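Incident log, support desk, overnight shift.

02:14 A customer reports that sequence design results differ from what the structure should imply. Their input is reproduced verbatim below. On-call engineer (initials T.W.) acknowledged and began investigating.
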């Protein structure tokens, strides 16, 4: 940012407060329209105020930098993120959450046709063998789309290190590629997920005659130690204390109690609970339908305490569910 100028001075020749410099000026109608849009999505007044503060800062920076609206693009947002801000108590770069709110504002302006539309990122074409493998995961193994997408992302991380031509794979290339990925990965969990996806891919290649057999055995197993992460299960008395800790008088307590009882009594996965719909519950037969691995639907008996907790959650005050979802977020946007 430029240093203070005469326009930034009070009548007594002292600098004005930094917040007074955050003036959207002629772009104030855009700010007000963005506020109405945010309120329509279900954000609380406090959240709307926070979002508008970031957007106002961005508009003030545009005005002081002499940047027109038709010049706004990803590079302009990046410049704003890197600018040496003097509107705070101490000069510092703005944070990522701040930039995310500005990015949301710019996207709203693009949707309204105020600024140029953002270029659509070109998705690189999948290799034929990779595309065939992903299709086989859906048709033959019946994996969920989200699982298939995750396998595709994990494989995309290792292919640049081992090459895209399956005929050139060897145990040494496989091991060296995975070790190199493990040294540069951003998470301790990624090597294990990448190895799992690569193992499935190599088996598919061998089955189709596109790669050497038994190459999946060259994929090293990621080391793990007991007690190095969260416990794999809770003792029964701990589970009961956790369930009892839910406040039945609070909206969140009723929801959390129903979720915990379904997890504990029926052994459901988190996704089973998150995707539960009202139509999946048969109150007359006291059963619920869940879609297990392989997309096979099964009906499970609904225990009395879990059923009572569901009734308490569904009949009490709760956010509206637009798609008949049983469990919804208590924070906007709901669903």
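02:41 Re-run completed on a clean worker. Output:
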């Amino acid at each position: 940012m430029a240093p203070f100028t005469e326009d930034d001075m009070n009548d007594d020749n002292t600098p004005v407060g930094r917040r007074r410099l955050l003036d959207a000026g002629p772009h104030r109608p855009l700010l007000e329209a963005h506020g109405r849009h945010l309120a329509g999505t279900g954000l609380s007044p406090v959240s709307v105020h926070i979002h508008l503060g970031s957007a106002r800062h961005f508009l003030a920076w545009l005005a002081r930098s002499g940047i027109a609206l038709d010049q706004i693009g990803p590079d302009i947002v990046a410049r704003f993120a890197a600018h040496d801000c003097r509107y705070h108590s101490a000069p510092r770069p703005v944070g990522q959450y701040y930039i995310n709110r500005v990015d949301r504002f710019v996207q709203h302006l693009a949707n309204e046709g105020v600024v140029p539309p953002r270029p659509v990122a070109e998705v690189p074409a999948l290799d034929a063998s990779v595309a065939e493998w992903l299709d086989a995961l859906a048709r033959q193994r019946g994996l969920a789309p989200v699982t298939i997408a995750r396998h595709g992302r994990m494989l995309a991380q290792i292919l640049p290190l081992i090459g895209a031509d399956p005929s050139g794979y060897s145990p040494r290339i496989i091991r060296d590629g995975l070790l190199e990925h493990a040294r540069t990965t951003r998470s301790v969990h990624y090597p294990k997920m990448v190895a799992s996806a690569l193992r499935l891919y190599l088996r598919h290649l061998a089955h189709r005659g596109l790669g050497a057999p038994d190459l999946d055995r060259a994929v090293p197993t990621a080391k793990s130690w007991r007690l190095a992460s969260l416990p794999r299960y809770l003792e029964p008395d701990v589970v009961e204390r956790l369930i009892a800790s839910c406040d039945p008088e609070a909206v969140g307590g009723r929801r959390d109690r129903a979720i915990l009882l379904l997890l504990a009594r029926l052994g459901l996965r988190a996704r089973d609970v998150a995707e539960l719909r009202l139509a999946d519950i048969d109150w007359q037969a006291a059963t619920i339908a869940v879609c297990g691995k392989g997309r096979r639907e099964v009906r499970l008996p609904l225990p009395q305490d879990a059923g009572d907790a569901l009734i308490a959650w569904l009949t009490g005050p709760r956010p509206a569910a637009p798609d008949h979802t049983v469990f919804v977020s208590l924070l906007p946007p709901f669903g």
